[in-house]
Amino acid sequence: MTETTQLRLTEIFYSIQGESAAAGRPCVFVRLSRCNLRCTWCDTTYSFKGGDQSSFDAVLEEIAGYGCNLVEITGGEPLLQEAVLPFMTRLCDEGYEVLIETSGSLDISPIDDRVCVIMDFKAPGSGMVDKNLWSNVDALQSKDELKFVLLDRADFDWAVETCRERELFGRVKDVHFSPVHGVLDPSLLAEWILEEKLPVRLNLQVHKFLGVE
Ligand SMILES: C[S@@+](CC[C@H](N)C(=O)[O-])C[C@H]1O[C@@H](n2cnc3c(N)ncnc32)[C@H](O)[C@@H]1O
Ligand SMILES: Nc1nc2[nH]cc(C(=O)O)c2c(=O)[nH]1
Ligand code: SF4
Ligand SMILES: [Mg+2]
């Protein structure tokens, strides 16, 4: 069987990484089309439909044109396209530092070990909490990151309980708590984190404060 070497893409762009432990670093983003979830607060609904089929070679050429060694694969939900797995391996082989941002609803175990997985389990306020694939916790490695995007105090309490019960603190490089942008006041989330003395990183979407993509 021949392996598919095409990806359905919404966009490729170069910007300041706004999220994760790599926040603040120049990064090339490859946004794949389609998503199996519908988070109530999703800021990327334009990736759900459309997109163009592009060959690995064309995508690699465009990435190389930016002259930046950090590449993030996102979406939509990047793991919906099986071809993303060999594509990430190719990026690693070519010496790129590769991040993937994924929802935690699809199996992360086939991802190349050199890729940093940023897995975003969904809290109840997203409307998608039933989609979390908890077996993914076992596939997480110490180089990976976990993220919880929080709508309100109920989401915060759920995330803390989830991290404690599932022993997620210390499992990965970072656990990020992020407010839903423009809804949950970041100062309030900061207060809650300090009060609870949580070993998490407050993650604000830097690009939205810069007004860039
Ligand atoms: C658009 S998603 C694409 C990757 C994957 N589908 C996921 O959810 O992780 C990228 C990141 O943006 C976050 N995000 C989307 N809308 C947001 C919002 N309104 N406020 C804060 N973070 C948001 C998601 O939670 C996720 O961490
Ligand atoms: N600047 C910038 N940083 C990001 N980090 C993760 C993003 C995403 O949509 O996955 C994102 C994004 O959309 N823009
Ligand atoms: S999983 Fe990611 S892309 Fe899909 S709806 Fe949720 S935030 Fe948006
Ligand atoms: Mg984004």
From TrEMBL:
<keyword id="KW-0949">S-adenosyl-L-methionine</keyword>
<dbReference type="GO" id="GO:0000287">
    <property type="term" value="F:magnesium ion binding"/>
</dbReference>
<dbReference type="GO" id="GO:0008616">
    <property type="term" value="P:tRNA queuosine(34) biosynthetic process"/>
</dbReference>
<feature type="binding site">
    <location>
        <position position="35"/>
    </location>
    <ligand>
        <name>[4Fe-4S] cluster</name>
    </ligand>
</feature>
<dbReference type="GO" id="GO:0016840">
    <property type="term" value="F:carbon-nitrogen lyase activity"/>
</dbReference>
<feature type="binding site">
    <location>
        <position position="44"/>
    </location>
    <ligand>
        <name>Mg(2+)</name>
    </ligand>
</feature>
<keyword id="KW-0408">Iron</keyword>
<keyword id="KW-0004">4Fe-4S</keyword>
<comment type="subunit">
    <text>Homodimer.</text>
</comment>
<comment type="function">
    <text>Catalyzes the complex heterocyclic radical-mediated conversion of 6-carboxy-5,6,7,8-tetrahydropterin (CPH4) to 7-carboxy-7-deazaguanine (CDG), a step common to the biosynthetic pathways of all 7-deazapurine-containing compounds.</text>
</comment>
<keyword id="KW-0460">Magnesium</keyword>
<keyword id="KW-0411">Iron-sulfur</keyword>
<feature type="binding site">
    <location>
        <position position="42"/>
    </location>
    <ligand>
        <name>[4Fe-4S] cluster</name>
    </ligand>
</feature>
<keyword id="KW-0671">Queuosine biosynthesis</keyword>
<feature type="binding site">
    <location>
        <position position="74"/>
    </location>
    <ligand>
        <name>substrate</name>
    </ligand>
</feature>
<feature type="binding site">
    <location>
        <position position="31"/>
    </location>
    <ligand>
        <name>substrate</name>
    </ligand>
</feature>
<dbReference type="Pfam" id="PF04055">
    <property type="entry name" value="Radical_SAM"/>
</dbReference>
<comment type="pathway">
    <text>Purine metabolism; 7-cyano-7-deazaguanine biosynthesis.</text>
</comment>
<dbReference type="InterPro" id="IPR058240">
    <property type="entry name" value="rSAM_sf"/>
</dbReference>
<feature type="binding site">
    <location>
        <position position="39"/>
    </location>
    <ligand>
        <name>[4Fe-4S] cluster</name>
    </ligand>
</feature>
<keyword id="KW-0456">Lyase</keyword>
<dbReference type="InterPro" id="IPR024924">
    <property type="entry name" value="7-CO-7-deazaguanine_synth-like"/>
</dbReference>
<feature type="binding site">
    <location>
        <begin position="16"/>
        <end position="18"/>
    </location>
    <ligand>
        <name>substrate</name>
    </ligand>
</feature>
<keyword id="KW-0479">Metal-binding</keyword>
<protein>
    <recommendedName>
        <fullName>7-carboxy-7-deazaguanine synthase</fullName>
        <ecNumber>4.3.99.3</ecNumber>
    </recommendedName>
</protein>
<feature type="binding site">
    <location>
        <begin position="41"/>
        <end position="43"/>
    </location>
    <ligand>
        <name>S-adenosyl-L-methionine</name>
    </ligand>
</feature>
<feature type="binding site">
    <location>
        <position position="76"/>
    </location>
    <ligand>
        <name>S-adenosyl-L-methionine</name>
    </ligand>
</feature>
<dbReference type="GO" id="GO:0051539">
    <property type="term" value="F:4 iron, 4 sulfur cluster binding"/>
</dbReference>
<dbReference type="InterPro" id="IPR007197">
    <property type="entry name" value="rSAM"/>
</dbReference>
<dbReference type="InterPro" id="IPR013785">
    <property type="entry name" value="Aldolase_TIM"/>
</dbReference>
<dbReference type="GO" id="GO:1904047">
    <property type="term" value="F:S-adenosyl-L-methionine binding"/>
</dbReference>
<comment type="similarity">
    <text>Belongs to the radical SAM superfamily. 7-carboxy-7-deazaguanine synthase family.</text>
</comment>
